[in-house]
Write a structure and sequence with these properties.
This protein is an alpha/beta fold. The protein has two domains: about 150 residues, Aspartate Aminotransferase, domain 1 (Alpha-Beta Complex); about 260 residues, Aspartate Aminotransferase, domain 2, CATH 3.40.640.10. It is about 40% helix and about 15% strand. It has a seven-stranded mixed sheet with strand order 4-12-11-10-7-5-6, sandwiched between helices. A four-stranded mixed sheet has the order 1-2-3-15. The chain has a three-stranded antiparallel sheet with strand order 13-14-16, covered by helices on one side. It binds 4'-deoxy-4'-aminopyridoxal-5'-phosphate (PMP). The site of 4'-deoxy-4'-aminopyridoxal-5'-phosphate has 15 residues, from helix 5. Its EC number is 2.6.1.62. Pfam families: Aminotran_3. It catalyses: (8S)-8-amino-7-oxononanoate + S-adenosyl-L-methionine = S-adenosyl-4-methylsulfanyl-2-oxobutanoate + (7R,8S)-7,8-diammoniononanoate.
Length: about 425
């Protein structure tokens, strides 16, 4: 169909994320993608600095992932998971247990990151319910977080986010504490840990769990923190009978330089959420992993099952691609690739620090962030970046990138140059 006609139909009928309906901002029409490049209907090519929202770590149309998908499609594209099981899901669960921090033994496969957070919360609430501690139903989290757009995840997103005020009275009321101070390399602030201790102790009788994004708070503000705070949380939650959920939907599979961000701290949470890069960005799939203690507690309750069963749970296509994506990651020097991107972003963004209006530049693993002292003009910044051949999606005061791990050094330089230019013009 003619691109102009497609875009007209898009504006009339297709409701895009965080967008009004009918559409006001015309999206770019992508016709295909391969490697790290998106091809647009008007013939332009853009390097994807966003990895399709942290997901496409191997880039697009990777032959190994394409083959895994085709092979599985030739056998079985979907089958209900209730009462039936299959090898791709069994292999995937086993692999995830082997790779994630020790102690996580059970895997609940979900269809999106937000759903895996819902499942993680359900696990924790049900655990305490089963143990007869029915008052433990709230969550504690730090401000500046993001855990997804369905209701329980929204209730632990940053409370200053507009969605929160919109849904006041509908969202469960959670306990918020300030986000950890400093950056990844900043020393642990003892007074902050004391505050965490006071809050967890004060609310212990009503807290089912603490939920945080370890090391990198993503869509809530792209902040980094010292992994020492995760160790403190682990000790405090244990001491006060509170479970600990790590949301590694964005950070999982190498993004921060460790396979899982919890690895920076050497900490095992009670429940771990994964998603996004799980299938290399090919298909929607997420997972909530938990310890035998959590699963065992639920099994001893008056309802001894986890009452959750999405239609597309354990989808064989997604499971097969996830297996191939994880093998592909581990078969390559992914640490070297992430380090190379980290160095490239650091060097490429060094000039941005001195630009007027730039408040901070920070890089960790394959994540680069330029923070302004004002809100970005999103349309202007996107235009500058696309003119330089790069796809970015700035938000609030942030221009950021998390490139696919297969980006060449030159492509990383192009991304950093586009971020700098966007910061200069925004
Ligand atoms: N948690 C985190 C940390 C995320 O970054 C996201 C997605 N940006 C989610 C949860 C929600 O995942 P999904 O969009 O797949 O529902």
């Amino acid at each position: 169909m003619d691109p102009a006609k497609l875009l007209a139909l898009d504006a009339r009928h297709v409701w895009h994320p965080y967008a009004p309906m009918p559409g006001r901002v015309e999206p770019l029409l992508v016709t295909d993608a391969s490697g790290v490049r998106l091809r647009l209907a008007d013939g332009r090519e853009l390097v994807d600095g966003m990895s399709s929202w942290w997901a496409a770590i191997h880039g697009y149309r990777h032959p190994v992932l394409d083959a895994a998908l085709a092979e599985q499609a030739g056998r079985m594209s979907h089958v209900m998971f209730g009462g039936l099981t299959h090898e791709p899901a069994i292999r995937l669960a086993t692999k995830l247990v082997e790779l994630t921090p020790p102690g996580l033994e059970h895997v609940f496969l979900c269809d999106s990151g937000s759903v895996s957070v819902e499942v993680a919360v359900k696990m924790c609430l049900q655990y305490w319910q089963s143990l007869g501690r029915k008052g433990k139903r709230r969550l504690l989290t730090w401000r500046g977080g993001y855990h997804g757009d369905t209701f329980h995840p929204m209730s632990v997103c940053d409370p200053d986010d507009g969605m929160h005020s919109l849904w006041r009275g509908v969202l469960p009321e959670q306990v918020f504490v300030p986000e950890p101070p400093g950056g990844f390399g900043a020393p642990v602030d003892g007074s902050y840990v004391d505050m965490l201790a006071r809050e967890i102790e004060e609310h212990a009788d009503e807290l089912a769990a603490v939920i945080v994004e370890p090391v990198v708070q993503g869509a809530g503000g792209m902040r980094f923190h010292n992994p020492g705070y995760l160790r403190a949380l682990r000790e405090l939650t244990r001491a006060h009978d509170v479970l600990l959920i790590f949301d590694e939907i964005a950070t999982g599979f190498g993004r921060t330089g460790a396979l899982f961000a919890a690895g920076h701290a050497g900490v095992t949470p009670d429940v771990l959420c994964l998603g996004k890069a799980l299938t290399g960005g090919y298909l929607t799939m997420a997972a909530a992993l938990c310890t035998p203690e959590v699963a065992g507690g639920i099994s001893r309750g008056e309802l001894p099952v986890l009452a959750h069963g999405p239609t597309f749970m354990g989808n064989p296509l997604a499971s097969a691609v996830a297996n191939a994506s994880i093998d592909l990651l581990l078969d390559h020097d992914w640490q070297g690739a992430v380090r190379r991107i980290e160095t490239g972003l650091r060097e490429g963004l060094s000039g941005a620090v001195d630009l007027p209006g730039v408040a901070d530049v920070r890089v960790l693993g394959a994540i680069g962030v330029v923070q302004l002292d004002h809100d970005v003009d999103m349309a202007a910044a996107t235009k500058v970046a696309t003119e330089r051949g790069v796809w970015l999606r700035p938000f609030r005061d942030l221009i950021y990138a998390m490139p696919p791990y297969v980006c060449t050094d030159a492509e990383v330089r192009t991304i950093a140059a586009a971020m700098t230019a966007a910061a200069a013009g925004a």
